[in-house]
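Tutorial, part two.
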Amino acid sequence: MSELIRRQYLDVTDRALTFEEAAACKLIVLYQMHAAVGREQHIEAAMDRFESDFSNKLSPKYAMALNARRIF
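Running the prediction step on this input gives:
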């Protein structure tokens, strides 16, 4: 794992305000890590399931975090 990704993971873990936001941030970082090693399809599917399961329970910050992951 690169040092930048490790720092991102620790940073979002420390700063997240709710469980949902922490989970979203961790999934985004995991997506970045796995995309770097060519496993995008598996992580993308897991994140899509997570997003659909929690879509009606999201805070605005969490929803923005999930939308931001599409940039990667």
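Residues 3-71 form one domain. In part three we will examine how such features are distributed along the chain.
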